[in-house]
Amino acid sequence: MKEFSKNALAVARRLHAAIPRSGKKSSKPDSEGLIDSTLVEGTRLAFLTIVIDQINGPFEHEWYDASAVMLRRLIETLIIEAYVQNGIESKVKDSNGDFFLLADLVVHARNEPVFNLSRNTKKLLTQLKKLGDLSAHNRRFNAKRKYMDNLAGNFYLDIQTLVKEFVDLAQ
Fold first, then answer.
1. CA distance 48 to 93
2. Which side of the chain, N or C, has fewer Cβ within a 10 Å radius?
3. Per-residue pLDDT tens for 67-92?
């Protein structure tokens, strides 16, 4: 067994060494393709800059499923952080103290009077959740740019507004 482990480790090292590297030193996307990371910089949500990079990078490379799944993650985190910061997280926790799944978080956030979300944000929350779910869980679905563009009148502007609304609520 020890010999097998030693051989497996050697094979893994050779494979790792054989993987081509782009030479690019930064993991930052070249642009703010979908979400402006300055929306969270300097806030208590600055840790989300990495998630935003993981949305923008795939978007920039037209890997829309990856971008949609990370966008779904961002929305889930923003909703939870808004509830926590407003001291009302018990509204979105089950009897075990676990946060609800995204479907229930979206329903609660849309109807939360403390949040007073804009009409566009309420609509986009539902649409982004659906796109993220399809990208994450439907084996025959592949997200395309046109699906994202069709979610809202001005997808880029509406996404910025949604993120900004939740960042403000989570401050």
1. 22
2. N
3. 999 999 999 999 999 999 999 999 99
